[in-house]
Structures are given as C-alpha cells and as structure tokens.
C-alpha cells in the first residue's frame, strides 16, 4: 500500500513575502517566519519602518530584506514581487496582511465613496493582485502557500463598518475561489479571521474600552497579541499543511462562537 510522503514542519530556506509587515500582525509574522529559517521580504508603505523590522530579524540571525510597497499600486506590486523573486531566487509563501480600518456611516455622502474605494483597493483588490503577480514563482515551489488575513468582520458585522465588512467578506470569498482554482496545482490558499488584536490598528482604543469589549464579546475575555495570530499563519504555511486549503479560520478568542 502507498504511504504518506514525509511531511516537513520546517519553512527553513523558504521565501516568504509578508505585506504590511512593519507593524502588528505582519511584523510578528515576518519575525516568526525568519526565526523559523525562512527568507522574508518585509514589505510595507514606509521603507525605514521595513528597515527597522529587517534590522531586528538580522540581529537575531535571520534573513530578511525590506521592500517599500503600497499594495494599492498595481505596478509597484508587480515590481516588488519580481524583485523579491530575483533577490531570494523564488517565492514559496505569500501572506496578504496589509490593512487599514475603514469605519464610515452609510449616510456620509462622498466621504463614504472615498472610504469604500480605499478599503476595497487595499483590503481586497490588492490580495488578488499580489497573488497573480507571485503565481509564476509560486507555481515553481513544491509547497506553495498563500494566507489572506481577513477579520471576524468578514464573518459578521459591527455597526458603521460596511466598507471594511464588505472587503473582508470579499477576502473570504476570494480565498475559497483561489483555493478551488489553484488546488490542481498543489497551491494552498487559506484565510485567517482575527478578532481583537493589540496592533497599530487598535492602539488608539483606550485600555478600558479594550477590556470592556473583550469581556462582552469574546469567550477568552481578552485581546490577543499579534504573535498569537502569527503562529496560526505559520501553521498554515508549513509544507506539512498540505491538505488544508480554502479554509476560513477565526483566531478570535471565541468571538464568533459566543452568542451571549
Ligand atoms: P497594523 O496597523 O499594526 O498593521 C497594518 C500594516 O499595514 C501597517 O504597517 C500599515 O503601514 C500597512 N499598510 C496599510 N496600508 C498599506 C498599503 N496601502 N500598502 C502596504 N501596507 C499598508 O494593523 P494590524 O492589526 O496588524 O493589521 C493587519 C491585518 O489584520 C489587516 O488586514 C487588518 O485589517 C487585520 N485585522 C486586524 C484586527 C485587529 O484587531 N488589529 C482584527 C482583524 C483583522
């Protein structure tokens, strides 16, 4: 009888691109991947902020390179992805993480249109653009992995957040569609839906409000650290995660499980 081939739990030597990697979950993911031996392309809007993460990785003996990238700029995506492949000799892993918050009431008029366009461009369109740009190299990898960072807002809605909810719900659909289309090539595409996480995005929420929200909404009654999400991302990009695709996974302290 045929047997399961060896399943590797190492990403050592693999090339990973992480978008929005200068802060929060992207930063934690880049640092974790590098600590596991991956070669990491640290990409974000601001070159010096990327440089700081790379310096931290290198100080701990890891391999990384900074690439300034605004994911709402299609040409820049194509250029940076090609540079990463040239620098590191391929691409195995893509983590679409860059994001912004996009609260806006429905009756905000033209302001709503602007928030909507920006939210969709950065939170949804960019995900498919980076994947399409990286595909030629992902196709050459023997364990190509894509992880999209959505949100619990992609599974349910907070009032006043429709642009973000629409974009993040789109990410869950995009994940499923891409998983189905790329599955025959052995490329996996999964999606993580974080709940409340302590990052740049939630920095301005007062500690007291964080505690109130977490106690009222999550089963674990707390905000999470970005590293707790990064570990789920790592588990999905391992070569051994070879039969997981199209999954939409909450990392939310039980927020979506809670009903009262
Ligand atoms: P963060 O603000 O700490 O990090 C987001 C990073 O994305 C920043 O470094 C920012 O510069 C970068 N970014 C923003 N616009 C960009 C663009 N156009 N091009 C490239 N980079 C850009 O926030 P975070 O919480 O770590 O966010 C990471 C992801 O997690 C986002 O997609 C966010 O929507 C999602 N998320 C966050 C939470 C939370 O509670 N923090 C919950 C659910 C989902």
TrEMBL record:
Pfam families: adh_short_C2. It comes from the Bacteria. Its EC number is 1.1.1.-. The keyword NADP does not apply. It is an enzyme of class 1 (oxidoreductase). Keywords: Oxidoreductase. Belongs to the short-chain dehydrogenases/reductases (SDR) family. This is SDR family NAD(P)-dependent oxidoreductase. It comes from Sphingorhabdus buctiana.
């Amino acid at each position: 009888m045929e047997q399961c081939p060896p399943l590797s739990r190492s990403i050592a030597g693999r090339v990973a691109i992480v978008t929005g990697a200068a802060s929060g979950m992207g930063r934690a993911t880049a640092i974790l991947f590098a600590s596991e031996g991956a070669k990491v392309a640290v990409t974000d809007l601001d070159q010096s902020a990327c440089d700081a993460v790379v310096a931290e990785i290198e100080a701990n003996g890891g391999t990384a390179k900074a690439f300034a990238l605004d994911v709402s700029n299609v040409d820049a995506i194509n250029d940076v992805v090609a540079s990463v492949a040239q620098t590191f000799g391929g691409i195995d892993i893509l983590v679409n993480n860059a994001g912004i918050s996009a609260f806006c009431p429905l009756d905000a008029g033209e302001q709503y249109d602007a928030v909507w366009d920006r939210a969709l461009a950065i939170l949804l369109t960019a995900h498919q653009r980076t994947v399409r740009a990286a595909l030629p190299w992902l196709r050459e990898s023997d364990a190509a992995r894509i992880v999209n960072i959505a949100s619990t807002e992609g599974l349910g809605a907070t009032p006043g957040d429709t642009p973000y909810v629409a974009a993040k719900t789109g990410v869950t659909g995009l994940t499923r569609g891409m998983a189905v289309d790329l599955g025959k090539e052995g490329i996996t595409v999964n999606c993580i839906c974080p709940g409340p996480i302590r990052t740049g995005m939630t920095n301005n929420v007062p500690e007291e409000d964080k505690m109130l929200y977490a106690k009222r909404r999550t089963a674990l009654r707390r905000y999470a650290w970005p590293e707790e999400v990064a570990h789920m991302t790592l588990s999905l990009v391992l070569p051994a995660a070879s039969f997981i695709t199209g999954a939409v996974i909450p990392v939310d302290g039980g927020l979506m499980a809670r009903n009262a």
